[in-house]
Amino acid sequence: VRTVRFMDESFTTLILYLTVESVAIYILFCVDSTVSEKKRLLIQQGKTSAIRPRETIIMQRHICFVASFFILFALSALRDNIGWDYGEYIGVYYYTSPPSAPFSFRLNAWLAPGFVFICKMLGYIDPRNYYLMFATVAFLTLRLIFKAIYKMSCDWAMSLYLFVSFCIYYQSFNQIRQVLALSVTTYAMYFLTQNNVKKYLFYVFIAFLCHNSAIIMAGMCIIYKWRINVWNLLMYLGICVLSQIGYIIVARILGSLPYGGYLNSGYGEAGKLATILKSGAEFVMLIGCLIFSKRTIKRSPHTVVFYNAVLVCFIFRVLSMRAFIISRLTLYFQPAYFFLMPEVLKSAGECFDRISMRLLKLFFVFMFLIYHIFYYFNSWYQPYKMINLF
Length: 390
Description:
single chain, 20 helices, globular
């Protein structure tokens, strides 16, 4: 009876999520068509000053972004007791908020200084209102994701659709520290597309202060310019094969890092069906992107950053079949798909007629809807509960 009730509540929650997400995506879909290719290119290049400030179109897209953001933010900020670590975070907020005593060593080891700083600052406002902490983290996370979409995407609605389809939005309900760090590194990618490595590393450091696993993204500043050619693809393939052959060495290296102890826990379980299926899905995504790589990079040279990110992502995804916890590292690289796949679809549009392209996009949306639903029901998401406002 409990299982049936839980499934009913989960299904109802999924309908709620899909409805809210659809409205947020539709708002961006409406504004996408109002922005010309020239203006979008100026936005991606950071030359917004070249766009006339009093133009009505600018106000429309800003208002639509705020409306879309607020819809998703409200759902996240008003949740109550959602996420397996929800109680832990409440304890962290109480222990770190003045004038409480210093929190325990266990909590100290579990957290990063950036997150503790957020809790302490909010504690001066209201040391007992932990909802304030959850709302603030949700605001910062979604603000950076929307800002990254605005600056880097050639199709805002599609990028937001991919964000929710990868279920990172739901993961922000539970892994609030890591997804906050992910949102920072996602926005940081913009500076790699502008060849501004110093600013990129600055944001990676900020992400590291929120969750120390984010430091892995520092490596992107070494490979972000690598050309997508046969030689480099073979090198990526070789690294993938060698990491499997030498997995024991890789596991030792990962085990020496923060949270490496999870490799020897339940999170280190190998061969999970969900992980295998996700690996298969990401392999298909990667191949689809690589088919149009020449055309895409020629049209939009900055996409080479996203191509290198998704190739690294796939290496970690394959490794995650050996230990589930490694999939946490793929999270940082997955957002590259949010910006790459719309560009690839745009390139594909040059090879098909209008009707064929519409059918391809419908198929694309449908397949990611299936991926979304599968991911939802094969994870730890809980029935939605709203805080009592009265």
